[in-house]
């Protein structure tokens, strides 16, 4: 059994670790609140864009646009959104596992666009071709960053580097629950128009669509990045909370072991004294 002094050093080490994980939990909680605010603001905007697309679908004209054009699927691109840093539980591992499974099941040629270091570093060890990578978006990614990614994805699609594009990200449900999710991004499926009000568009539906569809791609990518950031902070907060609780339990067990070691040392010392006294008689 380790001596009381050794156990005391281990307790100090674990207590320092507890303070670090507790601080990281508090930081993640603050970042999560900010991420949720941005996500809650982005979700209605994406929904409104979808509504505009539905109204455009009711226009009595045939709308043609490169981002709506479907073609035989020979090349599939996955846009994988992970974090730049670890210490966030199974957040990255679950999404990477889902992506690896999708790649294995996809009969067509698969290529990757990665957002975040963790996904990039994992798949870089394999034989998957990378078309683009984006890292260091920070804890509060901007719309301009999402726009740069969207422009690259649109370019790849329009130049025939991809026949289908999917977003792979983690949907934020609660701080305790995050869901790896796959969403088809391109070609954009034109919503079926519902019978109802007829809208007059100024300028023409074609002109509106030319501006709206790239904006729709940008918004979808921005929303999924925000979903990922909120999920990352929620997962990290939960992981650090568990680590803090484990450190407390370990300190309790070590304290008990230290007390036992101290009692054993006292018992040994008393036994030696008694033995010495008996030898003098």
Automatic annotation (TrEMBL):
Topology of this chain in the membrane: Peripheral membrane protein
Alphabetized UniProt keyword annotations: ATP synthesis, Cell membrane, CF(1), Hydrogen ion transport, Ion transport, Membrane, Transport
Source domain of life: Bacteria
BP GO annotations: proton motive force-driven plasma membrane ATP synthesis
Entry's Gene Ontology molecular function annotations: ATP binding; proton-transporting ATP synthase activity, rotational mechanism
GO CC annotations on file: plasma membrane; proton-transporting ATP synthase complex
Alphabetized CDD domains for the sequence: F1-ATPase_gamma (cd12151)
Subcellular location per the Swiss-Prot or TrEMBL entry: Cell membrane; Membrane
Signal peptide range in chain numbering: none
Cell membrane keyword on record: yes
Name of one Pfam family that matches: ATP-synt
Tagged with keyword Cell membrane: yes
Subunit structure: F-type ATPases have 2 components, CF(1) - the catalytic core - and CF(0) - the membrane proton channel. CF(1) has five subunits: alpha(3), beta(3), gamma(1), delta(1), epsilon(1). CF(0) has three main subunits: a, b and c.
Family that this chain belongs to: Belongs to the ATPase gamma chain family.
The protein's role, per its UniProt record: Produces ATP from ADP in the presence of a proton gradient across the membrane. The gamma chain is believed to be important in regulating ATPase activity and the flow of protons through the CF(0) complex.
Protein name per UniProt: ATP synthase gamma chain
Provenance organism: Desulfosporosinus lacus DSM 15449
């Amino acid at each position: 059994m380790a001596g009381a002094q050794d156990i005391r050093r281990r307790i100090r080490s674990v207590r320092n670790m507890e303070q670090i994980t507790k601080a990281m939990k508090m930081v993640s909680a603050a970042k999560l609140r900010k991420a949720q605010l941005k996500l809650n603001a982005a979700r209605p905007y994406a929904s409104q864009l979808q509504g505009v697309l539905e109204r455009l679908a009711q226009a009595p004209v045939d709308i043609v646009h490169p981002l709506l054009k479907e073609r035989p699927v020979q090349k599939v691109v996955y846009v994988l959104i992970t974090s730049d840093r670890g210490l966030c539980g199974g957040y990255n591992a679950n999404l990477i596992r889902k992506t690896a499974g999708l790649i294995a099941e996809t009969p067509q040629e698969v290529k990757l666009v990665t957002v975040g270091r963790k996904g990039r570093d994992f798949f870089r060890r394999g034989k998957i071709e990378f078309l683009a990578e984006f890292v260091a978006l920070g804890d509060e990614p901007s719309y301009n960053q999402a726009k740069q990614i969207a422009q690259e994805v649109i370019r790849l699609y329009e130049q025939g580097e991809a026949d289908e594009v999917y977003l792979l990200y983690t949907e934020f449900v609660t701080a305790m629950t995050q869901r790896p999710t796959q969403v088809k991004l391109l070609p954009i499926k034109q919503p079926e128009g519902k019978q109802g009000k007829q809208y007059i568009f100024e300028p023409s539906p074609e002109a509106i669509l030319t501006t709206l569809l790239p904006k729709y791609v940008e918004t979808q990518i921005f929303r999924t990045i925000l979903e990922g950031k909120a999920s990352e902070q929620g997962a990290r907060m939960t992981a650090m909370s568990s680590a803090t609780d484990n450190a407390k339990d370990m300190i309790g067990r070590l304290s008990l072991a230290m007390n036992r070691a101290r009692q054993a040392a006292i018992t040994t010392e008393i036994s030696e004294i008694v033995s010495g006294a008996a030898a003098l008689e």
